[in-house]
Specification:
single chain; alpha/beta; Cobalt-precorrin-4 Transmethylase, domain 1; Methyltransferase, Cobalt-precorrin-4 Transmethylase, Domain 2; 2 domains; five-stranded parallel sheet; five-stranded mixed sheet; elongated
Length: 259
């Protein structure tokens, strides 16, 4: 019997093929079998696959079919890349796949990728944490086919007034805005919507809680977009970080009193 192959869950990045990690690209180039999220992935990323590699689009496959494809290939001694958009560590639905691979005694590893959250922040040229403004980023989604617990409801999360990154909510932008209002965000809270961050089709819509829903409808954005909320997007003022403050000493730099 051939030695078993291995499955690699690889984050492909947010869309720009150059934003895949060096390790992810190498594994993609070496893979015998690639199972990719065709409904979300930029197809240009597949140009890194080697000639003869077998490609499977998971958009038209069930969980059982996906896992069977990976298990059968690994048992034949082939290396498999399960290619996910962005980074698979949140909203990636990979735990169920990993648990089934463990049950089949198939070895696997996870290679992180650049999330659309990071790509959106880069597109906006914004830092999501600023001193005296927000040191917390809440990554969440509204309730849809997948339910959320009551404490994870957008109304409850909005009470923190932290920076929020809301996935999978653009199709319900009016409901999202209303819940953020109920949670206490002021009407003038900055909001940015980034459609297909880092793709050629990337589109940015900026506004406030009072007008962002209308602007999103006007732009025709109905899917594949991230909603970012918080004062960090357009701060009126903020304190500089102590990291580079000449008067602040740390283990790598002495302060004035230490010189």
């Amino acid at each position: 019997m051939p030695e078993k192959g291995k499955v690699f869950f690889v984050g492909a990045g947010p869309g720009d093929p150059e934003l895949i990690t060096l390790k992810g690209k190498r594994l993609l180039e070496q893979a015998d079998v690639i199972v990719y999220t065709g409904s979300l992935l930029n197809p240009e990323i597949l140009k890194f696959s080697k000639p003869g590699a077998k490609l499977y689009d998971s958009a038209v496959m069930s969980l059982g079919e996906i896992v069977k494809t990976m298990v059968d290939a690994a048992k034949e001694g082939k290396n498999v890349v399960r290619l996910h958009d962005g980074d698979p560590s949140f909203y990636g639905a990979i735990k169920e796949q990993m648990d089934l691979l463990t049950k089949e005694k198939i070895e696997y590893a996870v290679v992180p990728g650049v999330s659309s959250l990071q790509a959106a922040a880069a597109a906006l040229k914004r830092e999501l944490t600023l001193p005296t403004i927000s040191q917390t980023v809440i990554i969440t989604r509204p309730e849809g086919k997948t339910p959320v617990t009551e404490v994870e409801n957008l109304v409850e999360l909005a009470r923190h007034k932290a920076t929020m990154a809301i996935f999978l909510g653009i199709q319900a932008i009016d409901a999202v805005v209303e819940k953020l209002r109920l949670g206490g965000y002021p009407e003038d809270t900055p909001v940015a919507v980034v459609y297909k961050a880092s793709w050629r089709e990337e589109k940015i819509v900026k506004g406030t809680l009072s007008d962002i829903a209308g602007k999103v409808r006007e732009a025709g954005i109905k899917s594949t977009a991230l909603i970012l909320v918080g004062e960090v997007l357009d701060p009126k003022s903020y304190d500089y970080s102590k990291l580079y403050d000449a008067g602040f000493a740390h283990s790598f730099r002495k302060g004035p009193k230490d010189v």
